[in-house]
Amino acid sequence: MTPKRVLRLASLAEAITWALLIIGMVLKYGPTQWPLGVSIAGSLHGAAFLTYLYVGLVTGINQRFGWVEYLLGGLSSVFPFATVPYDLVMERRGRLEGDWRIASVEFGARHDEGSTAHAPLERFLPLVRWSNYHPFTITSFVMLAAALILAGALDQH
Which residues are listed as membrane-spanning (predicted)? Predict the structure, then answer.
């Protein structure tokens, strides 16, 4: 799976769980007064939010994002449904093209600028490599975190 595809899936998941959370809030504060919807949707959204941030970080390292691109990506996760437009803009700008990098020598020059300036988080390329070789471990951590968040939320009700 390419960086573009992984970021697309994470941004869609984050946007869908935003919608679920909004529906849950309508159910909680609307005529039904059902607070469990927010607990479940909130837990799912929390897991999707953390996943999106991690995927954005790893993708950014791989694609040699600058600080502004990291900042915009992080901010897009705070506002409902903003991750999808961010993802589309990054794709349109050509910042998501290519495959996963496997060696630091592949970080010679930025594709869009032709300069040899280093990306700010380039030194974390081993994190990208580790993520690529351990997808089930990452998935297990995310599922465990989601289960713990959900258990904690349900315990309060």
Answer: 12-30, 36-55, 67-86, 133-154
Q: Determine the residue type at 156.
A: Q
Cα 147 to Cα 14, 20, 137, 152, distances in angstroms: 17, 17, 15, 8
CA dihedral of residues 66, 130, 96, 72 (deg, nearest 10): -40
Instruction: Please say whether the beta carbons of 41 and 14 come within 8 A.
Output: no
Q: Which residues have a Cβ under 8 Å from the Cβ of 61 and sit 6 or more positions away?
A: 119, 121, 122, 124, 125, 127, 128
Q: What is the pLDDT of residues 2-42, one digit of tens each?
A: 999 999 999 999 999 999 999 999 999 988 888 888 888 88
The sign of the CA dihedral 139, 140, 141, 143 is positive
Q: pTM of the predicted model, to two decimals?
A: 0.79
Q: Count CB neighbours of 99 within 10 A.
A: 12
C-beta atoms surrounding 101 within 10 Å: 19
Question: What is d(CA 12, CA 103) in angstroms, rounded to the nearest whole number?
Answer: 29
Which of these, 95, 99, 103, lies nearest to 125 by C-alpha position? 103
